[in-house]
UniProtKB/TrEMBL annotation:
<dbReference type="InterPro" id="IPR011992">
    <property type="entry name" value="EF-hand-dom_pair"/>
</dbReference>
<keyword id="KW-0677">Repeat</keyword>
<dbReference type="InterPro" id="IPR018247">
    <property type="entry name" value="EF_Hand_1_Ca_BS"/>
</dbReference>
<dbReference type="InterPro" id="IPR052266">
    <property type="entry name" value="Miro-EF-hand_domain"/>
</dbReference>
<keyword id="KW-0378">Hydrolase</keyword>
<feature type="transmembrane region" description="Helical">
    <location>
        <begin position="465"/>
        <end position="487"/>
    </location>
</feature>
<dbReference type="InterPro" id="IPR020860">
    <property type="entry name" value="MIRO_dom"/>
</dbReference>
<feature type="domain" description="EF-hand">
    <location>
        <begin position="177"/>
        <end position="212"/>
    </location>
</feature>
<keyword id="KW-0812">Transmembrane</keyword>
<keyword id="KW-0342">GTP-binding</keyword>
<keyword id="KW-1000">Mitochondrion outer membrane</keyword>
<dbReference type="InterPro" id="IPR013566">
    <property type="entry name" value="EF_hand_assoc_1"/>
</dbReference>
<comment type="subunit">
    <text>Homodimer.</text>
</comment>
<keyword id="KW-0106">Calcium</keyword>
<dbReference type="GO" id="GO:0005509">
    <property type="term" value="F:calcium ion binding"/>
</dbReference>
<dbReference type="InterPro" id="IPR002048">
    <property type="entry name" value="EF_hand_dom"/>
</dbReference>
<dbReference type="InterPro" id="IPR027417">
    <property type="entry name" value="P-loop_NTPase"/>
</dbReference>
């Protein structure tokens, strides 16, 4: 040992020295123990022995873990939060006295490690530094691996992108577990409790992400408050949009937020539901889906972008006042037979070519023409004949800018005659050039058509009527049965 100690002091990367003998079987088990420990729980990625501090990449990972575990976002881990953290990482909560002992050690060795009887970020980082300095770096590794980190302190692909198969013709939606989790996250970062996330609060929300996934177009994609801030409704709409359009990115984002840890689940796939095939919906004449995609198609100058913004409650004067960054998507909720459905509007670029059937695929097509442009309807009629006439996707023609004088379209048939010939509902007249909020009737019509794609326009009204009748009959029967049971018990 006298020979080896100077070498260990000279080369700080040497973690352990074990004096052993194969002949005398001296310290053989200890040798294998430390060799295994050096491989499974290396010190080098965590700690800089020369600087006697955590490496930057380790401190960054532990900071993210602290922020996830700080469930009320007050920058302090309370006893309850520490116990949740302890149970998640090690299976059991700390005994009350052990918890106090931990805080006492931190308090004695730091100036700001303990505050309001809880552990601060500096205290949390000090505690992990202490574990490593005392040779208990497996404790820190257990924490890191529980939160998805690999040996290079990067989040593992298996953690961010769990296996998740979406069969053909199925869609993906957040389920109630996902919405509950995201609402908790929203409330955690809404520090002033005004029901909206300010830019600073949104930045706090993304502090556990390696990058900010949403740009300024977010504010033209979802509803905002009167002050232009992201409301809870808009926040959930944006997550619904991501889950529908790109479920793998949605799983990645939920992983950054720590969904598996905070929800005590194997992976974030627990927050996602895969809908059944659309073919089965058409066969049964009903759907279990809650999110529908509408492609808005029309030539330039028809007001497609304004149509999307009107869906978010913004009339044309409001849009002109604060144009913001362009977004090709808009999502909001619509009532369909007293049920809340999410409708996604996707504006199709006029230069887009429908090269294959999947390019035209959606739940409902909105074919929009300008009543004041004689060439406008011809484009919509052509798209309909090429891609939708022989298919099962419902189509709704929208006559935009209805506040302007209507002119005769150059197509051989008038829009009303064309719709009648092809057994389509008559064109729906729309304008958002008004002082008050735009009418939502056209969006309800689109959502209704997407929900009941097997029905034509006249049948949709009947379906709505009979659904209300069926619901009323069910409630009446339920009340009657309850009264019957009460009367039987009283006898």
């Amino acid at each position: 040992m006298e020979i080896i100690l100077p070498i260990m002091n000279q080369f700080s990367e040497i973690e352990t020295c074990v004096e052993c003998s194969a002949r005398n079987l001296k310290n053989i088990s200890e040798l294998f123990y430390y060799a295994q420990k050096a491989v499974l729980h290396p010190t080098a990625p965590l700690y800089d022995p020369e600087e006697k501090q955590l490496r930057l990449v380790c401190a960054r990972a532990l900071t993210r873990i602290f922020n996830i575990s700080d469930q009320d976002n007050n920058q302090i881990l309370s006893d309850d939060e520490l116990n949740c953290f302890q149970k998640s990482c090690f299976g059991n909560p700390l005994a009350p006295q052990a918890l106090e002992d931990v805080k006492m050690v931190v308090w004695k060795n730091t100036t700001d490690g303990v505050q309001d009887n809880g552990l601060t970020l500096n205290g949390f980082l000090f505690l992990n530094t202490l574990f490593i300095q005392r040779g208990r770096h497996e404790t820190t590794w257990t924490i890191l691996r529980r939160f998805g980190y690999d040996d290079e302190l990067e989040l593992m692909d298996d953690y961010l992108y769990p296996q998740f198969r979406v069969p053909h013709d199925c869609s993906t939606e957040l389920n109630h577990f996902g919405y509950q989790f995201l609402q908790r996250m929203f409330e955690k970062h809404d520090k002033d409790r005004d029901g909206a996330l300010s830019p600073a609060e949104l930045q706090s929300f993304f502090s556990v992400f390696p990058y900010v996934p949403w740009g300024h177009e977010l504010y033209n994609t979802v509803c905002t408050t009167d002050k232009g801030l992201l409301s809870l409704h808009g926040f959930l709409c944006q997550w619904t949009l991501v889950a529908y359009l790109d479920v793998h990115h949605c799983l990645e984002y939920l992983g950054y937020l720590g969904y598996p840890i905070l929800s005590d689940q194997d992976s974030q796939t627990h927050a996602i539901t895969v809908t059944r095939e659309k073919r089965i919906d058409l066969e049964k004449g009903q759907t279990q889906r809650n999110v529908f995609l509408c492609k808005v198609i029309g030539p330039r100058g028809t007001g497609k972008s304004a149509f999307l913004q009107a869906f978010l409650g913004r009339n044309l004067p409001t849009q002109m006042e604060s144009p913001g960054d362009l977004s090709f998507h808009a999502i909001n909720t619509v009532q369909v037979n007293s049920q809340e459905k999410y409708l996604i509007l996707y504006e199709i670029d006029v230069d887009t070519e429908f090269m294959k059937a999947s390019d035209a695929a959606c739940d409902v097509a909105c074919l929009m023409y300008n009543v004041n442009d004689p060439k406008s309807f011809n484009y919509c009629a052509s798209i309909y004949k090429q891609h939708y006439m022989d298919g099962q996707i419902p189509c709704v023609f929208v006559a935009s800018k209805s506040d302007l004088p209507e002119v005769t379209q150059q197509d051989g048939l008038s829009p009303a005659e064309f719709c009648y010939k092809h057994r389509l509902p008559p064109p729906f007249y729309f304008t958002c050039c008004s002082q008050g909020p735009p009418s939502t009737a056209v969006y309800s019509k689109l959502a209704m058509a997407a929900t009941f794609p097997h029905l034509n326009d006249s049948e949709l009204g009947a379906a709505s009527f009979w659904l209300r009748v069926a619901l009323g009959a069910t409630m009446t029967a339920l009340v009657g049965f309850t009264l019957y049971k009460v009367l039987v018990k009283s006898k």
